[in-house]
Amino acid sequence: MLKFKDPSCQFTILTLVLLHSLSSQCLSRSCSSSSSSHLRPPPIPILPLPSSPQLKWQLTNMALFLHFGPNTFTDSEWGSGRADPSVFQPDMFDPSQWVRVAKEAGFSRVILTAKHHDGFCLWPSEYTNYSVRSSPWRKGGGDVVLELAEAAKEAGVDLGLYLSPWDRHEPFYGKTLEYNEFYMGQMTELLTRYGVIKEVWLDGAKGEGEKDMEYFFDDWFALIHQLQPEAVIFSDAGPDTRWVGDEAGVASSTCWSLFNISAAKIGATDPLYSSRGDPYGHDWVPAECDVSIRPGLISSEDIQVLQEFAHIRSSIFSHNLAKDAVIKASSTRGSINSTQFCPARVIEEGIYTYWAPKENTSKWVLYLDFKQSVSFNVLQVQEPIHMGQRVAQFHLYSMNDGKWEEVVNGTTVGYQRILQFPKVESLKLRFVVDKSRAEPLISYLGLYVDPFSIFSSLPDMRSNISSKSFFNGSQVLHQVIYNESQVSNL
After folding, report:
1. Strands 241-243 and 232-235
2. At residue 303, does pLDDT exceed 50?
3. Which helix (H) or strand (E) holds 408?
């Protein structure tokens, strides 16, 4: 966890990765207008499907995790639970600044450590004296959660809360019934005092040699959903979102939102299973990918890092080159004159419009023809996940000297897949879905130029290297292997 040295910026930033938004208008340049008033029904969704809160969570794309508490003042990652409450005195506390920085950098949600492992509560809990009430801040009358909730509501930013199951302060931690009642009492306080909560974070973190403790997770989950029906619950094993299995910001190249909750246990889930998901899973539990900017305390100057991050994203994704193409498909669901599922739908932002191929076919191809050659090094693909996750393997090809050459391939898509590769220039492209759990549905196809990528300095790599290799788990032709951690920090 990372903390600001400057008290006006005392929080840890943990970036949760996801992406993009919602739209509705159809671009019909490459789709003829419909001559019939009868629409073809959408294809049958393939189970499992996301709930409404899960869909909304996915569409918010990114969140900032704010780690704030006595640790900020004692320079420790995991507090002991023995720090005197007097150390907590954030005289320059300004939650409006936190929210403003988050919103300006493109984050639509902030998640606060209402209580970390040290057991110190950032709200005046009625169940313990180890809280802001015992600190000199605001003469014992402060409430960090309340002030952040008000700032977030005013800015139109969603709020999430983290309540650590492990509590190193409370003496009855380890007494199963007594502590579970205590924990649920605190959870009730948090979920009934501060308005709408959109995400609740839990984990199984606990130091070696600590007391054995059975958590009543099913009771906790039922209480959270009862008190905050719009909230998603994050943990190693869901039930709504799952930990990706690392804190490096890296998901597996194959990452299914399908998952079997029965095969996972909070605090003891196989990281590989968490990262990959399960193509045969019965539950919809998408992975949440988290990463710190860097270890240890950070200074207020690191706000600039977030601003630069926003600038980089805007620079890359502001113009989709695919919108300059005439897009055709191997087949289209419904009438030949219908625009409902036409291939041009894939350049409309959002997941609720999509290209659908004709049913009972096995050739699933989108063709992109440009009037002038285009250069790009980023591919973005999205599925309409409200119809289920389908794609299991795909390729992108470019036409060069009359021959199709593979640019990049991947496995799963889900809500969004973004791939980088050496820069490609072509007049004609072909996006092929090779394997799918049902007829594939593609809601968005994006082609972009990333001028910041290490690949941008390798324009001749495709002609200089003939061997196959892999980048971020996806096969890239004519490319050498790069250190994954180096690339993930771009």
Report:
1. parallel
2. yes
3. strand 403-410
Distance between CA atoms of residues 399 and 326, nearest Å:
15
Rounded CA separation 29/442 (Å): 18
Buried b (16+ CB within 10 A) or exposed e, 275-285: bbbbeebebbb
- Looking at the DSSP bridge assignments, the partners of residue 446 are 380
Q: Which residues of 361-396 are buried (b: 16+ CB within 10 A; e: fewer)?
A: eeebbbbbebeeebebbbbbbbbbbbbbbbbbebbb
* Cross-strand bridge partners of residue 17: 289
C-alpha radius of gyration, the chain, whole number: 24
Residues in contact with 128: Cβ distance below 8 Å, sequence separation at least 6, in sequence order = 119, 121, 169, 170, 186
- What is the signed CA dihedral for 358, 363, 365, 371, rounded to 10 degrees? -100
The C-alpha torsion from 309 through 250 and 57 to 223, rounded to 10°, is: -130
Residue-level pLDDT at 337: 75
Task: Give the Cα separation of 357 and 339 in Å (integer).
Answer: 12
With residue 187 as reference, give the H or E element that holds it.
Answer: helix 176-193
Which residue bears the tokens 């009438």?
Answer: 335
Query: 35-41: which pairs have CB atoms within 8 A and are 24 or more residues apart?
Result: 35/335, 35/337, 36/335, 36/337, 36/338, 39/334, 39/338, 39/340, 40/333, 40/334, 40/335, 40/338, 40/340, 40/341
Asked whether the beta carbons of 257 and 295 are under 8 A apart, the reply is no
H helices within 267-325, ranges in order?
271-276, 303-317
Between strands 283-284 and 258-259, the pairing is: antiparallel
Whether 424 and 453 have beta carbons less than 8 Å apart is answered as no
pLDDT in tens, 414-444: 999 999 999 999 999 999 999 999 999 999 9
Give pTM, 2 decimals: 0.86
In terms of Cα–Cα distance, which of 155, 62, 158 is closest to 100?
A: 155
